[in-house]
Amino acid sequence: MNRRTFLTTTLVGSVAAGISTAALAAERYFPVNVDEKLFETINRVKVPGKKTPLEMSHAPFITAPKAVKAGEQFTVEVSVGEHIHPMGPAHWIEYIELAIGNEPAGRVDFQPRGVMKPKVTFTIAVPKDMDPNGVVTLVAFQRCNLHGLWESTIDIVVG
Ligand SMILES: [Fe+2]
What we know:
The chain folds into 2 domains: 1-31; 36-158, SOR catalytic domain (Immunoglobulin-like). Strands 2-8-7-4-5 form a 5-stranded mixed beta sheet, with no helix packed on it. It has helices at 3-29, 53-58; strands at 60-63, 67-68, 74-80, 93-100, 103-109, 119-124, 135-144, 148-158. By secondary structure, it is α+β, with helices and mostly antiparallel strands. The protein starts with a helix and ends with a strand. Bound molecules: fe (ii) ion. The site of fe (ii) ion has 6 residues, from loops.
């Protein structure tokens, strides 16, 4: 075998081995078929009051006061979801985010080790200039590695 043949064979063999190793690793971590449509958009509950099992475990579930005073702190709890989502090495919640209207308020990232449940309490305050109509919308997002991005909202009165 001449030098050129050796190098070509080694390079092609290494690339093939690398691809097959990566494919095997991906299959080990993602053993479930994924519904790719869930990754094409932001997912929301379609019929409030009639949540599907997927919506029950993925739509962020927001608990907040119905009314708050501008500038005063209050807590907002966001869990994924109404039925808490599992956390494991093959299927987990990557993060939970909270926004006040269009303004990001905070984000918590999770590791897929199962030591934390996807449930977060944010302490926030709504500035007076954010509520020109006396109502603000709290927006919660979460991303599941197998079921995509999900959003829920809740309106609160700001006095
Ligand atoms: Fe999921």
